[in-house]
Structure prediction request, 367 residues.
Amino acid sequence: MRWVSEKNTEKIPYTTDENGDYDDRSDEKRSWNADDGLSWWTNGFWGGMMWLLYLYTKEERYAEIARISEDKMTECFQTFLGLHHDVGFMFQPTAVADYRITGRSQAKTTALHAAALLAGRFNPAGNYIRAWNDIPGSTDDTRGWAIIDCMFNISLLYWASEETKDPRFRHIAMMHADTVRKNFVREDGSVCHIVEFDPETGEMVKSYGGQGYAEGSAWTRGQGWAVYGFMISYRHTGKKEYLETAKKVAEYCIAHIPESGIIPVDFCQPEEPAWEDSCGACVIAGGLIELAEQAEGAEKERYLKYARRILQTIAETRADWGTDCDAIVQNCSASYHDKRHHFTMSYADYFFMEAVLRLAGMEFKMW
Prediction:
């Protein structure tokens, strides 16, 4: 990471090109959609990696690089239209981490601004946080859409509540989590990606397959968002139902992890084409590690066993440790039905790095 970070100091990377070089979501020479460029939802993970490395090495250079992307992203508040529920992903591993680690006052201001925007997306008719804004060129009405990914974003609200001693943020986070627990998690522990509610009455309308194989299937990264996400809510609130839900989803994952340790895009997808998602794999591993910290004895070892299997598979068969590619984790897929599969994602590297450092004893919890 030393040479990768110096090579990409001024960038906010998402993926690598055919030459293995990171792109730059802060490139002002390019024309971006409203929710891309500086508003792209993964932009916080590069800074998050830098903060993890700072904590691990105590080298100030990583903090300097982290703040470059953090400060660039504050411009998003001015453009506004590209921001949605993923402000948690954007600012929790950057501004919140900066403030918690160094006490930087500007970072606190930035993070609270983001938390207020996230809280503002809450619909009290239905008790859910709206996921996306209207999608340009689409006929979909997303006013009632909530998605499983937001179980991570609400960590920003828990932090804001704890920092300001204002319970409003926590109440919003918990009401959203309760809605997800009721409407997203199926009896067998599989999870919906998208659920639509009537934005006026709050009644559930239907669920969508989203980035998974089909409606009713089990998109693996969504399974990871649920396991890890409910553990985040449990850690911040102590509500036992969140722990039970995390265990339920985790058991579904464990039952479907292939012997190879290679995680598909969807646990219900057909054998061919054998699309993989190494990013979903890393998120699931992180959730299992979080669960293991709340377990004892055989249960603890069981969660760690499967987390290690996933991470070992990534390290040995799906990682580029050389200088031909800026990213480490290979074979990620954003969506089962996309035309493009098996590329790199900055947040796969983030969750891989976080999980490995947690196994190595790092006590700092980003979320």
User: Anything to note?
Assistant: The CA atoms of residues 20 and 325 lie 4 Å apart. Strands lie at 122-123, 128-129, 145-147, 194-197, 204-208. The mean pLDDT is 97. The two ends are 22 Å apart (CA to CA).
